[in-house]
Amino acid sequence: MSPPIAPVSEAVTEPIPVLTERPRWRDTFVALKAYNYRLYLIAQLFANTGGWMARVAIDWLVLELTGDVALVGLTVALQFAPTLVFGPWAGVISDRAPRRVVLLITQSVGTIAYGVLATLVLTGQVQAWQVLLTAAVTGTSMAIDGPSRSAFVSEMVGTHRLRGAISLNATVFHLGGLIGPAISGVLIVAIGSGWSIAVNAGTSAVAVLALALMRARELVPVFKQQRSRGQIREAVRYAIGKPTILWPILLLAFVAVFGMNLPVLLAAAADDTFGTGAAGYGLYNSLAALGAFVGAVLSSRRRALRLRDIVLFAGLYGAVTVFAGASGWYPGFLVALVGIGVSRLLFATGAESMTQLSTNPGIRGRVMSLYLMVVTGGQAAGGVIIGGIASSFGPSWAFIVAGGAPALAALVVAVVLARRRELRLRVDFRRPRQLVRIVPRLAA
Question: Domain Major facilitator superfamily (MFS) profile spans what residues (predicted)?
Fold first, then answer.
């Protein structure tokens, strides 16, 4: 049974204390003491690098085959739309079935799908509909995979190491994002996109092998829910009843729909705005990934999770994205891409950590399915919206809308939280490192 739902008014902006003092650098990697997690993380480094390579290659392949930026957005949508259909059901599976087995199946499906697509590209037989079909198949696999993958981390490392593991996951994901697009850009220019997709099929197979080699006896036992009616409704009520779950997911919805479609935005910028082609597209992805890597390291150094910080990061992310589209200055655009990566990663790791640490383990799979449903479903809708805006009004307006909506949402949530907790903004020029702070009204 899940614990009683906390009142909505309770602890809206209180920090979730994870550490009592700033962590030492060696403590940042404490989750690696778990054998299964070490194996998992090493495999994910390969899989994420290959995944980023394939992501860049597939988006560019669609652009080459059709010349239509809107179809790039449709490709992104097909990768993420299945989560809208299968997301809640995937959460129930995660809370009922062995998560490692679920991951073995879904990862194997992805390996086969990308292998077939790579073969078609390398033999010159590929057509646009085949790329779209592959996006739909892998998107369905990802929809089922997501909740189990998120919740499985706590089985490998335990709750006390969970936040560090989430930061390490983000670091490895974006390290792959730093390496993968750069390699993919070179391969696309030199020998075509097929080899990038083929590499991803191989690295995905490495991830399958790592899951198969794990020591099942070292996994943290998790109570599995029995079949019953209303389990999805239970998760929705649970999430709505906890402010530390509700507000991050609400902000995430705006960031996902409007601000998490960088492949569409960067493809449009490389093709229309700056005319830098595939090499520029790979560079732009790498700069954003570099910023995200920095953000992941900074995230692992934080002592506590505060809802006000998550709101701030969402607003900062939106503001930097607007600047990237409005400046029109190429060096400024490149710098802004790094800023986008840093702020997005700080927001994403903070929101996911707060959601997982606020959730009872017995319902974590279903809650994370809601979380991932917002992420991927939002990206599915956003891919079409932002792709359409880029195609009709140009990349600059697409960047402005992509950043403006999350920034506005963060401002509204900040006002609501300020009114509920009687908080106010303090500007203190005597403390440059704490120039702007949100403080209780009585302390002001």
Answer: 36-421
